[in-house]
Structure formats: structure tokens, C-alpha cells
């Protein structure tokens, strides 16, 4: 049986890569270096695929793993990511897998709406089989349908795109399966600018926020719309949006 410290080492390496600055030019290649090449690695973030482009699909092979993280970088800003201490992890030595929880703040880039959430990872590790990535790095055989992502042609990894070398590190323990359970509802609402609908009349709900516009006029507009909605949401729903205006219309104008 693999010693616990040896089993957990690749988990710590993955978590360290996940918390590195996503703006770094080596961000994705660093993440890819924590995954096996052979056996084929898989990422699956659970949820309906209609809710977000990175949900409900198996991303298989090195190209598939790269695509998953590219989608995250394209749609989300992630900050403040932390993980519970190792003592709280659920470790299955027989399956060589770990279940752990983390927290972070996620912002949908297009709308500037964000939320805090607790998520769960299940990470399985395996020994790298081959010394080189070329022979078996594609995802042929790894996908079961059109919802699976990978190179699919069996011709190997796109090294120029992924930025990893062909050095395989035979026998080294790396991540082979990475599963995520997160707040898919919040992601969907933020994607369509609907998190504001959850705001109460007196202001914010804990865990929901609006990113600063930073000079972006559209972002500032969204913030102001959100503030207006927070202040008048219940009146809109009750049919009494313009309470003061309605009273004036009864008695005539002041002019």
C-alpha cells in the first residue's frame, strides 16, 4: 500500500497549482504537469451542461484537461481559494483517492456578478505508465459521446498549445481523475446577470457581490442596476414599484 505522505503529495501539488495566479503564462502548463499522460486523465465538473460550458462534460486526455482550464479562465475570475487542512480530508488508500472541501470567490467575467461558495473535490492519483507522452496521450477511447472533450484522434497531445514537455516521469504518482461538485445554480444566475434577483430590499445577501467596474461603463451600469433592484425588488414583485409617484398622480402634479 502506498504510504500516506506519498499518496497525498500529488494532491498538494495540484492544490498549489490551482491557487497560483491564473494570469501567469505558465498557469495551464503548470496545472497539466500535475496530471498523468498515460493513463489518460479525466476532469468532470458535475452539473447540467446547459448551465455553463465547463459543466456536465468529461474532459479526457491532456488536451481535454487543458480545454477545461482554458474554459475556466475564459469565463471566470477565481480568487481567495483556500482548502481545509489535510487532517479533514477523506483518504481512501485502497482507491488512491482523496475527497476534500475548499472555498473561493467566483466572478462571471461577462456580467461582473460573483458569489462565494464551498466546493468539493474528489481527486484520484495513479502512477505514470510511459516515459513519453507521444504514444498514448490522445483521448481516443477516453470519451463516450459528443459531450466528452479531448483530442480524440490518437495522434498525441498538442504540445505547442498545452506547453508541456514529452517527459513522462514513469512511475511518478500524478492526478488521473479530478471531479468537482460546486454551486452550479450560482454560476448559471451569474452568467445571465440574475444573481441580483436574490438580493433583498435592504441590500446584499451574504456571499453575493458585484465586481468593481474599474472604468468599464457597462460594468458600472450593471452595478447601478443591481443597487436599484436591491432597493425596489419587493415593490416590483408586489406591483407597487413607484409608491411615491403613484400618490402624486392621484392628487395632481406639483407644477
Automatic annotation (TrEMBL):
<protein>
    <recommendedName>
        <fullName>SnoaL-like domain-containing protein</fullName>
    </recommendedName>
</protein>
<feature type="region of interest" description="Disordered">
    <location>
        <begin position="216"/>
        <end position="255"/>
    </location>
</feature>
<feature type="compositionally biased region" description="Basic and acidic residues">
    <location>
        <begin position="220"/>
        <end position="230"/>
    </location>
</feature>
<feature type="signal peptide">
    <location>
        <begin position="1"/>
        <end position="19"/>
    </location>
</feature>
<feature type="compositionally biased region" description="Gly residues">
    <location>
        <begin position="139"/>
        <end position="154"/>
    </location>
</feature>
<keyword id="KW-0732">Signal</keyword>
<feature type="region of interest" description="Disordered">
    <location>
        <begin position="132"/>
        <end position="155"/>
    </location>
</feature>
Amino acid at each position: 500500500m502506498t504510504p500516506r505522505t506519498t499518496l497525498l503529495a500529488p494532491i498538494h501539488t495540484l492544490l498549489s497549482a490551482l491557487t497560483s495566479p491564473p494570469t501567469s503564462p505558465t498557469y495551464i502548463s503548470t496545472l497539466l504537469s500535475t496530471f498523468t499522460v498515460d493513463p489518460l486523465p479525466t476532469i468532470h465538473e458535475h452539473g447540467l451542461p446547459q448551465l455553463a460550458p465547463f459543466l456536465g462534460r468529461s474532459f479526457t486526455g491532456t488536451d481535454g484537461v487543458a480545454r477545461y482550464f482554458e474554459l475556466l479562465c475564459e469565463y471566470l475570475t477565481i480568487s481567495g481559494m483556500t482548502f481545509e487542512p489535510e487532517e479533514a480530508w477523506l483518504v481512501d488508500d485502497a482507491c488512491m483517492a482523496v475527497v476534500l472541501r475548499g472555498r473561493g470567490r467566483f466572478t462571471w467575467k461577462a456580467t461582473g456578478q460573483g458569489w462565494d461558495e464551498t466546493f468539493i473535490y474528489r481527486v484520484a492519483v495513479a502512477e505514470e505508465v510511459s516515459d513519453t507522452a507521444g504514444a498514448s496521450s490522445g483521448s481516443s477511447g477516453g470519451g463516450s459521446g459528443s459531450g466528452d472533450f479531448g483530442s480524440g484522434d490518437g495522434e498525441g497531445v498538442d504540445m505547442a498549445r498545452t506547453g508541456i514537455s514529452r517527459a513522462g516521469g514513469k512511475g511518478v504518482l500524478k492526478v488521473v481523475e479530478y471531479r468537482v461538485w460546486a454551486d452550479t445554480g450560482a454560476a448559471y444566475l451569474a452568467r445571465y446577470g440574475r444573481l441580483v434577483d436574490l438580493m433583498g430590499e435592504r441590500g446584499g445577501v451574504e456571499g453575493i457581490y458585484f465586481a468593481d467596474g474599474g472604468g468599464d461603463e457597462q460594468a458600472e451600469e450593471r452595478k447601478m442596476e443591481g443597487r436599484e433592484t436591491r432597493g425596489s425588488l419587493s415593490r416590483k414583485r408586489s406591483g407597487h414599484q413607484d409608491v411615491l409617484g403613484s400618490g402624486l398622480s392621484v392628487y395632481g402634479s406639483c407644477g
